[in-house]
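Subject line: Sequence and fold of a protein, written as structure tokens
Enclosed: The protein record, placed directly beneath this head.
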Amino acid sequence: MRSELKRRKISVRISKSLLEELDKLVEKGIYKSRQEALMHALKELLESELGEEV
């Protein structure tokens, strides 16, 4: 596996209200997990800010 494809573990702190909203997305089946939802959100942010596909 190429090193850029390996996942790295990070820790973040978010507000209780954001976590609850994130969990709603998972409960509704929009995402399989918190991780999947956060990965999608981060990818969208980076692509928007950088103007290129990540």
About this structure: The chain has a mean pLDDT of 92.
